[in-house]
Amino acid sequence: MSPTIHIDPARHVAPVDPRIYSGFTEHMGRCIYSGIYDPDNAHGLADANGYRTDVLQALKDLNVPVVRYPGGNFVSSYRWQDGVGPKELRPRRPELAWLTEESNQFGTDEFIAWCRLLGAEPYICLNMGTGTLEDALAWLEYCNSSANTHYANMRRKNGHEAPYGVKYWALGNEIWGPWQVGQMDAVDYSKQAYQWAKAMRLLDPTIQLVSCGETGFADWDRVTLKTLAPVVDFHSIHLYTVSEGNHDVNVMGPAAAEKGLEITKALIELAKIEGNLTKDITVCFDEWNVWCKGAEEHYDLSDALAVASWLNVFVRKADIVKIACIAQSVNVISPIITSPTGLFKQTTYYPLQLFAILMQGTALSLHVGVSTPEDDTYTGPTVPPFVARLSVHTEPAARATKWLDASAVLSPDKTQIRVALVNRHKTAPVSVPIHFGPNVAVGAEVEVYEVWSGELEDRNGRTDGWQGAYECKEHSFQVLVFTLV
Ligand code: AHR
């Protein structure tokens, strides 16, 4: 391989929105119960309100700015009213997304209090399955109203005098999916969501609304944006990449997300032209991750590289994606796994942390030049055959994807250029010349943060695998920090 990177610090893409490093907590598996909330923890890991302090710290170390809640599929049969008030009076209910029982011991008030401890903004997804517009308005009133009205007073009675000021509200979850309670077609959904948006804004004009999108490259996205553009601030995208044991598919999968963002950007522009709109509409990529087997994924180095490639996509597309929530934050498809005695940071935790800390500031235009395309690019599928067969996520137009994946930022204080590099090739190390634009000088010292191990199947927890070095090894991820002089 012989790629070359060209970066011109004068060519800004857009500010990197810190909200691209956001999270998602759903009532699914052990995400909420025994993940973030574990009141019976026998090892002293929960505080007086039942919140796992070790989990809070691990998420604080990721600087999580926004957390989406309570689903996901769960929300489409969720009655928020069951989850507030005295805990002993809260009903247990059948739960239709994951076919379990919901105890309702954790609800809106617990979630908001947890977000406050974390220092994150809450983002609530509305139930557009079994829920009514009346329920949605009541939830908004409960959370945000300072009036002398029923649900605002209910919040006060439950001990929360001040309104919560929840800014982000999603108009349903994956309403297009056959698995969703209350599935609709795009036209029906758009009509209903438009009316919900109108009413929600009448009650609280300060909120920001998110339309339920699909992959960004589906006809659903085109149809819903056309109708909902006048009333929403964000369009959501959900996409999971899948490896099915194939490293190349795993690490190249995020190319589909990049294509989805390009298509969505164009669809937004089209909807704005058609609606004669001048407002901003951007993407809230509110579910993304590598998801292969079940609820509790065990990630290896290949998955960490895939996550780094996902994050490179979000930095490169900083002009259109302003919020992205890894699905999910704890235990379920998560970089963090808890046990009663502690937590385990999986391989995927580390690229996320490096990005959240270092890849902030202004995204820079970056070009990876290749002189031998046959060696430097991958031309195979980016979606494994079984996903293609589901024909839920059709693969966007095939593209030649470079083995070397990169993004760059100018640091917030404008003194450094930081380059995130993923060498996705299984076996070939690469020496990468990095050219900065004319009249740019960088210091001789470069800080290097590296995620690497000898085997792609290695998981965190080995003591003999992780190493620090300055060279772009085969199947590795680095962030290089250059100081401008
Ligand atoms: O994150 C797990 C599930 O994946 C969510 O509940 C749903 O929205 C998606 O299909």
Automatic annotation (TrEMBL):
<dbReference type="InterPro" id="IPR055235">
    <property type="entry name" value="ASD1_cat"/>
</dbReference>
<dbReference type="InterPro" id="IPR010720">
    <property type="entry name" value="Alpha-L-AF_C"/>
</dbReference>
<dbReference type="GO" id="GO:0046373">
    <property type="term" value="P:L-arabinose metabolic process"/>
</dbReference>
<comment type="pathway">
    <text>Glycan metabolism; L-arabinan degradation.</text>
</comment>
<keyword id="KW-0378">Hydrolase</keyword>
<dbReference type="InterPro" id="IPR013780">
    <property type="entry name" value="Glyco_hydro_b"/>
</dbReference>
<keyword id="KW-0119">Carbohydrate metabolism</keyword>
<dbReference type="GO" id="GO:0000272">
    <property type="term" value="P:polysaccharide catabolic process"/>
</dbReference>
<dbReference type="Pfam" id="PF22848">
    <property type="entry name" value="ASD1_dom"/>
</dbReference>
<dbReference type="GO" id="GO:0046556">
    <property type="term" value="F:alpha-L-arabinofuranosidase activity"/>
</dbReference>
<comment type="similarity">
    <text>Belongs to the glycosyl hydrolase 51 family.</text>
</comment>
<protein>
    <recommendedName>
        <fullName>non-reducing end alpha-L-arabinofuranosidase</fullName>
        <ecNumber>3.2.1.55</ecNumber>
    </recommendedName>
</protein>
<dbReference type="Pfam" id="PF06964">
    <property type="entry name" value="Alpha-L-AF_C"/>
</dbReference>
<feature type="domain" description="Alpha-L-arabinofuranosidase C-terminal">
    <location>
        <begin position="286"/>
        <end position="476"/>
    </location>
</feature>
<comment type="function">
    <text>Alpha-L-arabinofuranosidase involved in the degradation of arabinoxylan, a major component of plant hemicellulose. Acts only on small linear 1,5-alpha-linked L-arabinofuranosyl oligosaccharides.</text>
</comment>
<keyword id="KW-0326">Glycosidase</keyword>
<dbReference type="InterPro" id="IPR017853">
    <property type="entry name" value="GH"/>
</dbReference>
